[in-house]
Amino acid sequence: MEQNPPISSTPKPNWWKRNWKWFVPLGCFSIVVLFVVFVGLVVLIVFSAVKSTDVYKDALARAKAHPAVIEVLGSPVTEGFLVSGNTNVNGASGEANLSIPIAGPKGKGTIYVSAKKSLGQWNYSGFAFEIAKTHQRIDLLQSPTPANSP
Predict the structure, then answer these.
(1) Are 147 and 138 in contact (CB under 8 A)?
(2) What is the mean pLDDT of the segment spanning 98-125?
(3) Are residues 81 and 31 in the same domain?
(4) C-alpha to C-alpha distance for 50 and 43, rounded to whole angstroms
């Protein structure tokens, strides 16, 4: 003769009561991850926007080609990610104040740029390179003098 197991009179707990212990932490973790991704995307968009400006590209190209910067940092010179400052361009006019980190095999430094755009042309009022180790500044607005000049 076969015995049937006793039938329980208590109902099975619902899904939430069975699973809340793993669902709540996972949900909170997911919200935190989504927030971090959102902030990261905003930062990436802002830095990409600054790096796509004409004044950034021109200042970086000029600094990379300047003999004094190459002498201090070595070659190749690469730009850093954390550009700071602001640009405000409205058609053919605007202004920019930027701080651009750069590095080379011999060291690191920062390019400081202050420029105004008038009639579609950027005019630099300040353009300097600061060596990170010594905090010495090199004025990049002055024409570079050849190494073998008297």
Answers:
(1) no
(2) 92
(3) no
(4) 11
DSSP 3-state assignment of 28? Answer: helix
Q: What is the pLDDT of residues 70-108, one digit of tens each?
A: 999 988 999 988 899 989 989 889 999 999 999 999 999
Query: d(Cα 150, Cα 33) in Å, to the nearest integer?
Result: 61
In whole angstroms, what is the distance from residue 120 CA to residue 94 CA?
Answer: 9
Range of the domain at 31: 12-50
pTM of structure: 0.74
What's the CA gap between 60 and 50, in Å, rounded?
A: 12
For the chain, what is the domain count?
A: 2
Residue 135 lies in a domain: yes
Give percent of the chain with pLDDT exceeding 90.
47
Pair (124, 67) in one structural domain? yes
